[in-house]
Amino acid sequence: MKPWVLLLSMLIYGVVMLLLVLGGLKNETFFPAGRTVIEQCGVRALLKCCEKRCTKLQECFSPNHTCCWTFCGNICLDNREPFKSMLNP
Q1: Which of 4, 34, 38, 50 is surrounded by the fewest CB atoms within 10 Å?
Q2: Helix, strand, coil: what percent of the chain each, to 5?
Q3: Where exactly are the transmembrane stretches of this chain (predicted)?
């Protein structure tokens, strides 16, 4: 085997091992440094509330909704009337 092939394969192996140790490539656009802490929802969510999921950036597309966590994961709950959807199944 030619020496440059061995050197190239060792370089690639070193870069792959370094990425594994460091946790991979992190893009500041998708993983901002100041992550927000998601709190538990103040009300017990029904299964139909689990359809409104938060984005990966822990935000909600709907206005006046807050991302919180419950038994089915991170969901968006309405800030104005959080109990409205809970009482009328």
Answers
A1: 34
A2: 35, 15, 50
A3: 6-25
